[in-house]
Specification:
alpha/beta, Rossmann fold, 3 domains, 8-stranded parallel β-sheet, 7-stranded parallel β-sheet, globular, binds iron/sulfur cluster
Length: about 575
């Protein structure tokens, strides 16, 4: 993997790499890229992540390399809201922003002698010099060897680092958990104007500024333009011109009125962004969506296909490696991530861990929408069999909050004295931490955590060794149909029903494999993965399973119990 990353940087190409969890992707990517940096093939590296946990993994890998003698300056960019020392990041007139340019020189000089500028080091330096830590991070990133940050800073036209990503540069990109990039890019490149939000802001502005104020009138004009459009759900391949002209006018004039209410300021920014997206509206990559609400319509300029944009962004940098544990099928991901150029490479690495450490079983239970109520008991029995076979921590993963909650309640009703926890829709950072801490090493009694597929606990958490002994995955994870997803399907559809797979099957499977990937994290990890759904027996799903999995069918509970018993007995024997 390190070699593939190095060559991508050397050849100014992209490498798409699929490698199982726990084999050291972060270190391999950094190692290859640092070699390329050392040889001058790239001038700076950007380790791009979709989640904060990914940033920490990169920081830790660099720490280990530094301990081995590597001299490299890294900066981690932390989101403004998280690093701001004030209760609310309200920047207008902020004491740390006023006079920033007069005071930053000393701080940046000091920063040059610090090897690792993570959030804590930046915060300390910023407070010492009374500077905005976020601005200081951005400034310090300009001279760093490695910048660790969210995808946004490289790909989002609104916030990307202009020095490196507005024009051609020799930056090397390492895109961690690259399976997320297409969806994230779609969000970054789309724009939305909500009639309901505009109406609410107009009422707010009328209260503060008076009914006849220029801002209220201007908002009224825009609302009239929205109102004039028939409230019918539509997907258009051309712009709704009357609305777009009204937004353009609003964006220009509202800016001149210099609003101060933060929510109105934000709305004006959004309108400006809407006007910008409208300017570059490309019918091959965009759809204009009219979505009727209760009283007003919403208009979305929806980027249905960000691949062209991503391809261009990748071609503007010195080289890129995009890696993840779940990029199957690779041709599909190469296409949607814009990494399918002639010079681009694909690499699929097998697991180096002993195959017998994972027991993967397919359980044919009908768990589609109409069957869920009826099979709730069967699903609960399977989960309990898994947790009862050996004391340990287990995940029970469901495709939606509603289904998860229903199953959790049912399970608790059946076995009120079992140790069970359940994910909640809005959890604070502290609540998430407390949830993770429940996964104690080598527990005496089993714990079952009910979580949502694609959520924070089913992806992106690291529970090595005996902190996780198994995962029951209920359903194939396919996302709920929505207006946008159906359009995606239609757009990608071809004679082979490729559209359905691209819009539903692959994103679903990705969530399943991400959750399953929590189970085996090291070469000594052992664990169980139960795939609970009739559809796993279909040839399509069989073909998409990781090559290092030996998935076996189990039809009866007695057989399941026996397989689990044998698996853990064998593990125990080997441990002795
Ligand atoms: S300028 Fe910086 S320190 Fe001040 S409010 Fe904004 S983010 Fe916070």
């Amino acid at each position: 993997m390190a070699r593939a990353v190095y060559l991508a940087m050397k050849n100014h190409a992209s490498a798409l790499i699929e490698a199982p969890t726990g084999i050291g992707k972060t270190a391999a990517a950094l190692f290859g890229a640092l070699k390329a940096l050392g040889k001058g093939h790239v001038t700076a590296l950007f380790y791009l992540t979709a989640r904060t946990t990914g940033c920490r993994a990169a920081e830790d890998a660099l720490d280990r390399m530094r301990a081995g003698g590597l001299a490299v300056r890294s900066v981690t960019i932390t989101a403004k809201e998280k690093i701001c020392p004030l209760e609310k990041a309200d920047c207008m007139g902020c004491q740390y922003a006023v006079g920033y340019y007069d005071r930053r020189r000393e701080a940046l000089k000091e920063a040059m002698s610090v090897q690792k500028l993570d959030a804590a080091a930046i915060a300390e330096l910023a407070m010492k010099h009374e500077l905005c830590p976020f601005e200081l991070t951005l400034d310090a990133s300009e001279t760093a060897d490695v910048v660790i940050c969210d995808y946004n800073y490289a790909f989002d036209p609104k916030v990307r680092l202009r020095r490196y990503f507005d024009t051609k540069s020799q930056a090397g990109l390492l895109v961690d958990e690259a399976h997320n990039l297409s969806d994230r890019a779609r969000d970054m490149l789309s724009a939305e104007l909500s009639g309901a939000r505009l109406a609410q802001l107009r009422r707010q502005a009328a209260r503060f500024e008076g009914k006849d104020s220029p801002m209220v009138k201007l908002m009224g004009e825009l609302l009239d333009a929205l109102d004039a459009r028939e409230a019918e759900q539509e997907s258009l391949s051309e712009l709704p011109e009357a609305i777009v002209s009204a937004v353009r006018r609003f964006a220009e004039v509202a800016d001149e009125l210099e609003p101060v209410e933060p929510e109105i300021v934000e709305f004006v920014y959004d309108a400006q962004w809407f006007a910008r997206v409208a300017k570059q509206f490309d019918p091959e990559a965009y759809r204009a969506l009219i979505v009727p609400g209760e009283k007003y319509i919403d208009v979305r300029l929806w980027c249905c296909d960000p691949s062209k944009y991503l391809k261009k962004a990748l071609s503007r940098v010195g080289g890129a490696a995009l890696f993840s544990a779940t990029l199957a099928p690779m041709e599909h991901y190469a296409g949607i991530l814009g990494a399918d150029g002639e010079a681009d490479e694909q690499l699929r690495l097998d697991s180096p861990f002993p195959r017998e450490n994972l027991l993967a079983l397919r359980m044919p239970v009908a768990v589609g929408m109409k069957d869920r109520e009826r099979t709730l008991n069967a699903v609960a029995q399977i989960i309990r069999a898994m947790a009862g076979a050996r004391p340990g921590n287990y995940l029970a993963c469901f495709p939606s909050y509603a289904y998860m909650t229903q199953a959790f309640r049912h399970y608790r009703l059946l076995w009120p004295y079992d140790d069970v926890i359940c994910q909640e829709a809005q959890m604070s950072e502290r609540a998430r931490q407390a949830f993770i801490e429940r996964f104690a090493p080598a527990p005496q009694k089993s714990l079952v955590a009910f979580v949502v597929l694609g959520g924070v606990f089913a992806e992106g958490v690291d529970l090595p060794d005996d902190r996780l002994s198994g995962a029951a995955i209920v359903s194939t994870g396919i996302p709920q149909p929505s207006f946008e997803r159906e359009l995606l399907r239609e757009q990608l559809d071809d004679a082979d029903d490729g559209g359905y797979d691209a819009a539903y099957t692959y994103p679903g499977l990705r969530r399943v494999l991400q959750a399953a990937g929590r189970v085996i994290r090291t070469e000594t990890d052992r664990g169980v993965v139960l795939l609970i759904d009739m559809r796993y027996r279909q040839e399509k799903y069989r073909a998409l399973m990781p090559p290092h999995w030996d998935v076996q069918d189990v039809g009866k509970m007695s057989e399941l119990n026996e397989r689990l018993r044998r698996f853990w007995a064998q593990a125990k024997g080997e441990e002795r």
